[in-house]
Amino acid sequence: MSGRSGDADFIWGLATAAQQTESRNGRGRSNWDVWSDTPGKILDGSTTERLTEFDTRYPEDLDIMASAGVRHLRLSLSWPRIQPEGPGKPSEAGLDHYARLFDAMQARGIEPWVTLWHWDSPVWAGDFVDRDKAWRIADYAACVAARFNDRISNWMVMNEPNTVATRGYGAAFDPPGHGSIPKAARAIHHLNLAIGLMATATRANVNGRARVGTVHNCARAYPANANPFNRLTARFMDDVWNWAFLDPLFGRDYPVTLRPLLYGAVKSGDMKIIAAPLDFLGVNFYASLYFRMIPRKPFIELGGWPDSMEKCGLFPVDPEGFEDILTTVHDRYRTPIYVTETGFDVELAEAWQDRVRDPDRTRHYDSYFAALARARARGADVRGVFCWGATDNWEWSEGFTHRLGLIAVDAQTQKREGKDSLFKLDGQIARHFGPNGA
Ligand code: GCO
Fold this sequence. Notes:
Layout lengths: L10 E5 L2 H4 L9 H6 L17 H14 L4 E5 L2 H4 L9 H16 L3 E7 L15 H15 L6 E6 L1 H10 L10 H25 L5 E7 L3 E3 L4 H22 L9 H4 L7 H5 L5 E5 L4 E5 L6 E3 L16 H15 L3 E6 L9 H5 L2 H19 L4 E7 L18 E3 L6 E3 L1 H14 L5
Parallel strand pairs: 1-2, 1-11, 2-3, 3-4, 4-5, 5-7, 6-8, 7-10, 10-11
Antiparallel strand pairs: 8-9, 12-13
D-gluconic acid binds next to loops.
């Protein structure tokens, strides 16, 4: 019994995140402000100072989205904007900012799907090596849910804990930049704890109709080649990337391969806290992952995708991997799924007109929507898709060197314009999934 909803319930939308689009105005200092202000941390030397100024320019962006038939927007709220100085009483100005944003979305018929944490923490909150941060972030979740419990129907408590734990703790590509396997192990468990505590805190403060989920970057891991060390690496990373987070969320223990690493951080009652009920799982997918072992820190490197996959900036195009991960996750957990991110880093073009005319992005979305439709036909209960990103934005430690947006934005001039691919999405969705009634 797939349990999947009919096509009429299938929804589509765009996705964005506060720390990739909002300026620093009106909020507290974040972990990513500190990181981007540290010389050498961001590939193009950009900082989080302005970004795409979504905090003030959102009317322009929402107008473009509405003109393209967008009716759902997944967006994150900035914890440093809501609790800028410390725990407890939230900033009324910060909450009012988002109330006005939700008003503007409602006025344009765009429903907000809220991600509570998309990687930006106030400096005072520390990092996830510290177990207590799980309770600090749950307190933040409770503040937001209590204020917007009558406005938001779909909550996602956290975005991609696996990316955070691997890039910021196991490696030093992102903040806090530990580059330590033991610290990554503690972060994995404390991030899982945080998800469970946030889900419980959110559900305790929202109305009974609201749905609470969380978001994970799901991708199978494969060896870059037949080298036995790379095969071992891929097996290890398949557990780290996927099942070290998803299994505990759905009431299972940590994968056997990781128990020696993770059990040191587990306290009595933790696994029950982590397995708080979820109404859906958000799956972010770009491409399957290929790994190889390297003789220097962090000893594991992402790369070695097959030449058969079409290259496309950050990630290759991998519709087969998309269909596979959706059916695998469905078969393993039997939970409703929304694809909460997928998108394409279509090659950089300097001339504005070349950035807005993006036929390759449309072609790639067609292949991914076809893969998603095949997964649904095989019984996967996938109920919608959010395209990443609503606008070109700040790609974390890679700065403005990638453009995955459906709306082109020039971060210098703040000029924005809907790309051709944006205006094709509605028709593509109708062709692949039937009339988009929802
Ligand atoms: C992620 C994040 C997004 C990225 C996007 C492109 O999946 O890493 O959720 O913030 O910008 O995926 O890499």
